[in-house]
Amino acid sequence: MLMAWAGRGRVGWLGRQWAVVLAAVGAGLTFVVSGIIRHTYPFGEVSRSTNDLGQQVVPMYAHYRDLLTGQGVGDLLFNWSSGFGVPFLADFMAYVGSTLSWIVLLFPRDHIDLALFLVDVVAIALAAGAMTAYLRRLRPGPAWIAVVAGISYGACGWAIDDAAYMTVWLNGLVAFPVLCLLCEWILRRRSVVPLLVTPFVVALLWTSAFYTVYMATIGAAIVVVARILAYDANISWRERLSGAVRCVLAMMLGIALAAPLLLPTFLAVRAARPSPDAVFSPIGPVVFLARLLPGSEGVGTTPGLAVGTVMLLLAVSFPLNRAIPGRERIAWTAAVVLTMLSLQIGITHRIWHGFDTPNGSPYRQAFVVAGLLVIVGWMSAAAGVRSVLTVATAVGAAGLLCLVAWNVRSTTTTTHRVVPLLIVIGVVAWLAGRRPGRIRRGAVVVLVGAVLLEVTLSSAAIDERRSKFLSAKGPWGAQHAAVRELVRSADDWPRYRVAAGAGQTVNDPMLIGGQGPQYYSSTIPDRVSQQLLDLGFGYSSYGRATVDPQNPVVDAIFATGARVVPGEVPSLRKYEVSPLVTVRSAASFRSDDPGPFGAQESALGADVYTVPAVRAEKGAEVIVSGRRGDLVVAPTPEAQTAPTAGGVRGRSVETRLLASCVPGSEVWLAAPSFVGSVLVAGRGWVTNLSSKVNSPGIYAGAPMVRVGIVDADGVVAVPIRVDSATRLPAAPIGCMDANKLKAAVHELRAVRPAVKVAGHGLGLRLEPSGAPTTVVVAVVRIDGWSCSVDGGGTRTPDSRAGLLAIPLPAGATEVSCTYQPPGLSLGLIMATAALLILLGLGLAGHLLDIWRSKRLESNRLDLPA
């Protein structure tokens, strides 16, 4: 608890600058030491690449490093490596964009995980330092308490539990105190200089993490409102409101400067694969408030509000601290309470998240509450907590919360130990603070050490609890290196693509290399996702992550000429496929076959499948029915309730899908919503879709799978197993004729234009044809592409079965296509306008200074001698 001398010092023995540095170093050090305790990478074999960090952030940072070093294919606008070619700017903004992303250049590519760890450490340190700087600017007080406050904010529960594995979110943690500091500068210094500097800093922050920085901006607005309401009565409302208007103007100009990146990202998010609408449900008050306790963990379900026991005690003491003027206590207490309530109310929840309720982690804005708690705690400490009643109330409230939340799911053993211990140490330190000399200085050392220990142990406890139910990907190792070497040995882009597979992550094309189909991103264009699903791809996360069916027709369509075959010793397999750019007849081919079989044929431009009528074999244990043309297969009630050999009721039943096809053709099963197993030749029983999957057919779907070869009698019998009622399409089986596919590929390879792919565009030269033709690029057509023929005017390309298509007149020899994210031009216009306004403000300020100086000089000349 705060000592009696808390309000006595002004500058303090640490000094203003050293307080910022010590807070930054202390916060970063607690994160490092918690990793040492947990033996997580890079201090042990336990992986820290939880969920999105391993699946998305690390691969995208690896791809970004490749772009910076000239080793990647594509640029900031377009990514040729993933999903057969997808935009990259929105991914950069959502996962990579950070003022710290350059750190990846300090490490070799096989240490990308170490680079991300360092980014986390530096971001946490910057947040702590920035908060300390703001607190010292807001109100003078003991420097050591400012250091404690900064560390408590930088390593708050939200930072460790929610943001440490979604690295880019930490930029919002940094942005909140920085924005508060900028607004404080504007409010105090009524000149044009803050208005000129602030927008550039705001633009830098918004381009680092627009998502959480948006939340930080709302938080800064709350702080400004509280500051204005808490002003002395002798400050007029006109002066207060003018200061607020200046803050708003600076923020808007800064956001406008970032528009070339923000607007295309906003439009890309709108065009991304949608997820089902989520309904926000507030949690109980005890569960909510329990997250104020250090060491508590509840990522994805509860808000990370914890800022340590000492800062919690100080924050609770604030409304009762009579050393603070009443208007300030009312204004700031209302700000904190209302902000906490806003996390639990539907409409304000939507505002916090940009009117798009996320499907996970509904409390992503909790770091703002953590920041507000630290601010009011500092204000109470700076004023000095001398009342025994105030101390007793704060201790009683914290102790009561600890007891009430003792068995709440989010609390940990660390919570049970550190909170009572820190309360005792705080009270003893507060009592010792009334004593002069060594006792007081010793109390400071003990309390600061206890806070550092608490933050460290809390971080370790949070990481340990979270790791028990969230999966993690391992850091770069020998398997990564082996696969990357195989991919690089076969690379011949843009003649054909090399698929690295998904042995390490869903984003292996970015992590390992090559130009494979795998892609997982919240900004995946809906057209890309839907096109791949239509072609027989599997998916998870509502279609935001794709699963390669490893189908030869798909490989032929998208020029996948080499593929890594997973195994203990991975190997490489090569195929003869059509080129990346094919020249076809002006008239398009459209297949009449249903499902992915017809979609593949239309994209290929040839008939290679036979799609037979299918029936499910009935039996004593199987019910077969149909609705809306689908097949519904289910165990009989007797089979469902019959006990197995182990006495467990409910068991799998087996049946067969029957059809007739040409002998020797390949049998493919396309049943994305089929929950059960299928017998695959050479592999045994393979799970098509697990019953544990959330919302089969919505959240996840199975890729089409090769099940065998048609026997000489032409009978197709595909054994399947089901545990409960499951649905299959009306036409789940397609028989692919390998000879027809070979002939189709040979025809597409007959004309091979010279292709050059560079950055976000491609160009090609071809021999003139005596008839109109169509050039088809093996890229899913999305908005933003423009093409020209023989140097003529640009036009929007056509779509042929979902692929990029450019009609050519007879005799055409050159084609050039460029991708530009929608909104980029408008964003550049907005940024230019903001820059002109800033130049105008600067000029006006300069002229005003000249006028004032001349007026002052004139007044001096008019004075009597």
UniProtKB/TrEMBL annotation:
List the signal peptide residues: none
User: What are the entry keywords?
Assistant: Membrane, Transmembrane, Transmembrane helix
- State one Pfam family annotation: YfhO
Which InterPro entries does this one have? Uncharacterised_YfhO
Coiled coil (UniProt feature): none
User: Which sequence ranges are marked TM in the entry?
Assistant: 18-37, 84-107, 114-135, 141-160, 167-187, 199-226, 247-269, 298-318, 330-351, 363-381, 388-408, 414-432, 444-462, 824-848
Quote the protein name from its UniProt record: Membrane protein YfhO
